[in-house]
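for the recovery benchmark. tokens below, seq after
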């Protein structure tokens, strides 16, 4: 599974960079006990770019690059026709609709297969979920918002600048709060600055600070927000 997991990570990078789709199947059931015969039947329905791997619990995972949900269902249907004995259950998930994380996609494909009836194919059932962001709780029901929070979970542990765009009132502050709350910097205070409310002449002082006497009215030295946010998150 380690090789397949790395392939999924590679496909996730392609999804983020180029908005490409990919899908993952999970095949489970008594018919999979004969691994050699089962894998031979499955591989016969796949392309050269597809990949397969067995899990420790005897399920076979199939990675389908460049394949959306419809294509994944079509492949699963062909596989089911070849292995229509022994109570085969097939679960399928698609990135980005069902997640942006390798471990989560594998788990969700497994859950979809576990929820399928013998001889059937099942996708992931989207239900409302509660996401905890610091002291706030957000109920996520829309798949698009769920994908956004999945992406946030992927970005939060990484110490890189993140550009958050959107119309006024679209919740950019919630995204920034989520990134901070899920990051290793969560123990420190999130520092925010509303740039629209800041006069142009004060931008440099606010961001970089100033020394006492640097300008009229600077009666004490003051650290800038960039310095104050060291080891934390600065949201502009």
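predicted aa per position
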């Amino acid at each position: 599974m380690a090789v397949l997991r790395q392939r999924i990570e590679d496909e996730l990078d392609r999804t983020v960079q180029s908005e490409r789709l990919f899908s993952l199947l999970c095949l489970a059931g008594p018919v999979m006990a004969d691994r050699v015969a089962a894998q031979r039947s499955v591989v016969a329905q796949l392309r050269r770019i597809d990949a397969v791997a067995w899990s420790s619990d005897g399920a076979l995972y199939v990675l389908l690059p460049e394949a959306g949900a419809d294509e994944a269902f079509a492949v699963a249907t062909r596989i089911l026709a070849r292995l229509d004995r022994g109570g085969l259950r097939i679960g399928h998930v698609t990135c980005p609709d069902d997640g942006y994380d390798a471990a989560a996609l594998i788990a969700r494909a497994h859950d979809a297969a576990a929820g399928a009836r013998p001889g059937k194919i099942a996708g992931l059932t989207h239900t409302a979920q509660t996401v905890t962001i610091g002291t706030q709780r957000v109920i996520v029901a829309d798949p698009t918002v769920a994908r956004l929070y999945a992406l946030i979970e992927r970005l939060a542990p990484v110490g890189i600048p993140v550009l958050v765009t959107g119309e006024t009132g679209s919740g950019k502050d919630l995204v920034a709060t989520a990134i901070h709350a899920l990051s290793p910097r969560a123990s420190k205070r999130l520092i925010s600055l509303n740039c629209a409310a800041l006069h142009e002449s004060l931008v440099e002082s606010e961001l970089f600070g100033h020394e006492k006497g640097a300008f009229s009215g600077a009666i004490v030295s003051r650290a800038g927000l960039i310095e104050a946010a060291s080891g934390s998150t600065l949201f502009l």
